[in-house]
Amino acid sequence: MLKILRITALMMICSFMCSYIALAAPAESDLIHQQEVLGQQIEQKEQELTQKKAEQSKALTELKTINKTLSSTEKKLRSTESKLNKLLAELDQLETAIKDGEENLAGNVNLLSERLNTIYAQGNVHILEVLLSSTSFTDFLTRWDLVSRLAKMDCTLIDEVKEQISATQEQKNQVLVKKETLLDLQDDQSRQKEELKLASSRQSELYQNISNEKEQIEAALEDLEIESQKIEEELMRLNPNTQYVGSGSYIWPTPGHTRITSPYGMRRHPILRTNRMHTGVDIGAPNGASIVAVDHGCVVKVGWYGAYGRVVMVDHGNGIVTMYAHTSAALVNVGDPVQKGQTIAKVGSTGWSTGPHLHFEVRINGKYTNPLNYIKK
């Protein structure tokens, strides 16, 4: 009877386990499929983001070029306006000089006319009286020379004033030509300025639209990354590796490089520019530097992992998994047993990274925790 009960109990246990496996297997299969789909979506979004970044950079470069040209045009326009103002002031001075010259000429002409009228009215007697009243021949010559000089000076003065007026008028004509040239240049520069302002406004709008689209892609990519990480954690929970159990004592993952560039905890994301949880520590190291396993274990993931770039994940048993992200190269494959201190990858800058470094995580039953509680410098 006891034997029958034992057999019955064993059959029930087997039946229960088979039922559990039957139920669990599809669940795991679904998760794997979801992870694959998410991976494709993440890759597509990353390509879109890369394209938008390129478009944003191009639009910004074009906007800077337009604004630089606009600034140069505005500077030239201010210079043209300054030259035009000086030219207008010069024109005012020339017109004043011409007016004064004309008044001076009119005065001299009037004076000469009065003298001629006087001479005409008195006839040659006036001049003869001046000459004949000489007391000597020398005095006569002196008076004749003086009369001649006065007449000559009047004529010379009139000629000089005429020449001065003519020269001033010529200078005025040249200034007027310059004025017309500057006015045409001012019109062209003003028109160019307005066209550039319109182009700058349109380019600014384009840049803003691209930036908004980029932010939407980044937000969607962030959601996909979070969902992918949740599935990864669930798969780790469903598939605990108990074959390889670590020593529980951990070493530093980057020999010779101990500078922490970003600690565990909340921070402003260097790329997304939003406050996000930093689920590991970033260790500064040059590209190609060695990354070692912090403890014995088994490699459970090698390959691209969204924003983390190329990663290696090692299961140390008892629900503990370490992750080494942004690597430039992986030196192990899934299923490989690894020893503490064994080089498993090289430092890189793959994924969402601002430069070569190692992003190191420790996950307990799929949940991240502060790595510095496990590794020591």
Describe this structure in words.
The chain is of the alpha+beta class. It has two domains: 65-215, Orthogonal Bundle (Helix Hairpins); 240-377, Glucose Permease (Domain IIA), CATH 2.70.70. Helix content is 61%, strand content 15%. The chain contains three helices and 13 strands. The strands form three sheets. Strands 1, 4, 6, 7, 8, 10, 12 and 13 form an eight-stranded antiparallel sheet that branches. A three-stranded antiparallel sheet has the order 5-11-9, with no helix packed on it. The longest helix has 121 residues, at 2-122. Mean pLDDT is 76; it is low at 1-26.
Give a brief rundown of this model.
With 377 residues, the protein is an alpha+beta fold.
Number of domains: 2
In CATH, the architecture of the largest domain is Orthogonal Bundle
CATH classification, class level of the largest domain: Mainly Alpha
State the assembly state of the protein chains. Answer: single chain
Mind summarizing the main beta sheet?
A: 8 strands, antiparallel
Number of strand segments: 13
Order of helices and strands: HHHEEEEEEEEEEEEE
The coarse silhouette is rod-shaped
Mean pLDDT: 76
First and last CA, distance: 63 Å
Q: Radius of gyration from the CA trace?
A: 49 Å
What class do helices, strands and sheet pairing give? alpha+beta
